[in-house]
Design a protein that fits this description.
By secondary structure, the chain is an alpha+beta fold. It has 15 helices and 13 strands. Keywords: Coiled coil.
């Protein structure tokens, strides 16, 4: 059927709409392909909420909240329990440590009580022994008895343990007391009246060196080398012994001496060896004199090979012994020997540099001439100065050593060596200022001097002076003559202030990076290596002893009054003396007179 015009119009509209929709669809497809825009898909419509769903959601939220709160509470309780456990463990640890300290304190108290009982028993035995020796005498006052007991404590300690280091703090507050004991409580042989004088002199010499350089906070006895040396040389340990005069102390000293003889029976003949043989023995050279603190030279630099020569310890020790041989050269002096010992010399076909070290003790073997009229005086042998070299750089870059520095040394011991096997060695010790020390017991008695007419050989020991003034009274070794020596202050000058004649020019610089004299000298290198300044001094404990113990003890006031009354009663002027003093007091207006009665 043919369509009507109206239907034809609707069809045309539909076609037109369809064509437009097709174009829009194609355009959207093209845009979608090009990524220009995306038309979101319509979201699905959520179903409508119901009362049952709301109840389930609320119940789940409440369950989750309760679980979180329970977990938080559980964690808090666990933390508190852990903290409480840690506190309990800490308290147990503190209690355990307190118990340990209490046990240690109890053990120390028991040990102290035991030592006090032993000391009391020894004191009672000593007093009883002395009471029997003195016979029937009147009892002494309590004050005097306590004073004697106080002075007898070192001997009682010696009877308990012979080593002085077991009773005193040798590196701290007791250093001065130990120095005085080492110099005043001399050795007791314990074997026979005179005993081996060579060994006795060696021990006394070591005791003097100990009091000079081994004590105090910077003492040499704290160094590792000395501990090793004591293990290898029993003589060094034996020199620390306290030799008292009681029977117990003598017996202890005798036992220690026998142990010393037995330990060195295959090494040194202690019974018959002289001091020179013992002091210069292989044992002493290896363990003592070859140590850096006693070496006279720094490592020898071979200027031919430009290397440091390695010498064995025996040669090092012998090279550090100066020889003042006036038997062959009467013009030599102590200072000449010290000055001529350093420099560049040719030995064994090679040129070597002998550079001075700074030892704490210097040994000098002195052989006087036969004619006593031309011998050196005692004053000229009490001190000398050892050169000190300082590296300097000249304007042209040449290496120079300033040799104007000086280190002062003072006499601390003299050993008179024996003439033959029938003779005996002798020793005298003195303070740095020159005062002769008088030990309670002298194992080498006899009067002798450095100026004796009989030509002998002496070994002199000089200690490094650490700021000790030289304005004290010097005396002869025999004590027969006193001399006063005026103090001489050494002056130091730099290399720029000295003439060229006082500056020794060297072809090699000193040790590269040298901090201490122990380091080796390398081959020639930098022009200005660091060097020790002359102001750097070796820190030593000033062991100049106080007045010797147990000598010139002042009487107590009661004893002084008792002695005065006895003197006045014997002269019959007791009453007159009182009246005279009363008259003097009236004249002075009741004031006490300054003078003694």
């Amino acid at each position: 059927m043919p369509s009507t015009p109206s239907e034809q119009g609707l069809d045309s509209d539909n076609e037109h709409s369809h064509s437009e929709l097709t174009q829009v669809t194609l355009s959207a497809a093209r845009l979608d392909e090009a990524g220009a825009c995306r038309i979101p898909a319509p979201s699905p419509v959520a179903p409508a909420a119901t009362p049952q769903n709301d109840h389930e959601e609320l119940e789940g939220s409440l369950r989750r909240y309760l679980e979180e709160r329970l977990q938080l509470f559980f964690n808090r309780q666990m933390t508190q329990s852990m903290v409480l456990g840690a506190k309990v463990m800490h308290a147990e640890d503190v209690a355990r440590r307190a118990q340990t300290k209490a046990s240690e304190a109890e053990a120390k108290a028991e040990q102290a009580l035991k030592e006090s009982r032993e000391t009391k028993a020894l004191l009672e035995a000593l007093l009883a022994e002395r009471g029997l020796e003195q016979g029937h005498q009147s009892p002494k006052p309590a004050t005097e008895t306590r004073s004697e007991q106080r002075h007898q404590l070192p001997e009682l300690r010696a009877a308990i343990s012979p080593d002085i280091r077991d009773h005193y703090d040798v590196f701290g507050r007791d250093a001065a007391a130990v120095a005085s004991l080492l110099e005043s409580l001399s050795i007791m042989d314990g074997l026979k009246p005179r005993g081996p004088t060579g060994l006795n002199c060696l021990i006394m010499m070591l005791q003097r060196i100990y009091s000079h350089a081994m004590l105090g906070p910077d003492g040499l006895a704290k160094k590792d080398w000395f501990k090793v040396a004591e293990d290898n040389n029993p003589i060094l340990s034996h020199a620390w012994h306290m030799f008292g005069q009681t029977r117990k102390a003598r017996r202890t000293a005798g036992e220690a001496r026998r142990e010393l003889f037995e330990s060195l029976v295959n090494t040194v003949d202690l019974a018959n060896a002289s001091f020179n043989e013992l002091c210069r023995s292989e044992l002493m050279n290896r363990t003592f004199w070859s140590q850096d603190d006693f070496r006279l030279y720094q490592p020898l630099y071979n200027m031919t090979t430009h290397k440091v020569d390695d010498l064995d310890r025996g040669k090092l020790a012998e090279a550090s012994l100066l020889h003042l041989d006036r038997m062959n050269d009467p013009k030599l002096t102590l200072q000449n020997v010290a000055d001529n010992a350093f420099g560049i010399f040719r030995t064994d076909g090679a040129r070597r540099m002998f550079k001075p070290h700074k030892p704490v003790v210097v040994r000098v073997l002195y052989s006087p001439e036969k004619d006593p009229r031309h011998r050196l005086s005692v004053d000229s042998l009490h001190r000398f100065q050892l050169p000190y070299w300082r590296w300097c750089e000249s304007s042209d870059g040449t290496g120079l050593y300033d040799t104007s520095g000086r280190n002062d040394y003072a006499l601390i011991a003299v050993v008179r060596e024996r003439l033959d096997e029938k003779d005996h060695d002798g020793i005298r010790t003195c303070a740095l200022g020159g005062t002769i020390m008088s030990p309670r017991y002298d194992p080498t008695p006899g009067l002798w001097s450095l100026e004796d007419t009989i030509p002998r050989t002496y070994m002199l020991f000089f200690g490094l002076r650490a700021d000790v003034a030289l304005n004290e009274t010097f005396s002869d070794i025999s004590g027969t003559e006193l001399r006063h020596l005026q103090a001489v202050q050494p002056t130091s000058a730099s290399a720029q202030q000295l003439p060229e004649t006082q500056v020794a020019q060297a072809k090699v610089p000193p040790n590269e990076g040298e901090q201490t004299p122990r380091q080796e000298i390398p081959a020639p290198g930098p022009k200005t290596p660091p060097m020790q300044s002359p102001q750097e001094e070796l820190i030593l404990y000033d062991a100049t002893p106080p007045r010797p113990l147990y000598r010139n003890r002042r009487l107590s006031s009661s004893q002084h009054r008792r002695d005065t009354d006895n003197d006045e009663s014997r002269t019959g002027n007791h009453g007159k003396g009182n009246r005279g003093h009363g008259k003097d007091r009236r004249k002075d207006g009741g004031r006490r007179r300054s003078g003694s009665p």
